[in-house]
Amino acid sequence: ALARQYAETPGRILALEMGGNNPLLVWDAADVEAVALIVAQSAFLSAGQRCTCARRLIVEDGQHAALLDAVVALADRLRIDEPFAEPQPFMGCVISDRAADGLLTASQAIGGKTIRPLLRLREGLPFLTPGIVDVTGVDVPDTELFGPFLQIVRVKDFDAAIAAANDTRFGLSAALLGGDRALYERFWAGSRAGVVNWNRPTNGAASNAPFGGIGLSGNHRPSAYYAADYCAWPVASVEAEAPFIATPVGIADA
User: Is 51 one of the catalytic residues?
Assistant: First the structure.
């Protein structure tokens, strides 16, 4: 709709920063506690209401049982309350009761093995507890569930992990936790996303770096130095201190 609206003004750049169905891969990670904390921040910060929040946790099948236990235990400990409550909460409510109702309905219809159900904490208010579900082998709709809801996908090898990460129409953020530099560079090169992180949350973005995604996540990179692309007037110049041009071929002698 926005592209149609701007069709008659081609001189304006239409930069779209939309949502995501963002993957978070865990591979060969030794520090279970640190990784669990990054997973929780990626998935549940701001009650999952950030476009860069992790929606899918991809792990090697048969591995990381201790990590998943730690993530669930950490989710149980997250304080959910109003902004100025004491003790200070980790996250608050989702934006509205309508949003909460939609998330609850979607989480119940998604199938898979429920590890921690998404529940309404207070009747009549949009406070939700973090939900975690294992959707391995389930045909899950490629949609952005904008709330504290994490889907776990188990894969056989790293190639399958990258394929699972890219199995989305979105392409905003992605992150790898664990592995060495070579594995990260393999992940970085194979990722279909505009923000690709290593051993950091999916929802961290630097103000001095490009930001944006591809596919349904948007276009261009409307941030940092790339801001010059949409707030400046590009002008090309070919210059010399004095008039000069080589004599073209095909001109007869004077």
Answer: yes
Pick the closest to residue 80 from 71, 88, 72, 69 (CA basis). Answer: 88
pLDDT 10s digits, 50-96 = 999 999 999 999 998 999 999 999 999 999 999 999 999 999 999 99
d(CA 125, CA 31): 37
Amino acid at 170: F
CA distance 27 to 39: 13
Q: What Å distances lie between residue 150 and 11, 113, 233, CA to CA? A: 41, 12, 43
Catalytic residue among 51, 53, 93, 144: 51
Burial class (CB in 10 A: 0-12, 13-18, 19+), 130: buried
pTM, full prediction: 0.90
Question: Is residue 93 within 8 Å of residue 126, measured between CB atoms?
Answer: yes
For residue range 181-221, what is the model confidence (pLDDT) as tens digits?
999 999 999 999 999 999 999 997 788 888 889 999 998 77
Q: Is 26 in contact with 58 (CB distance < 8 Å)? A: yes
Specify the DSSP class assigned to residue 17.
B
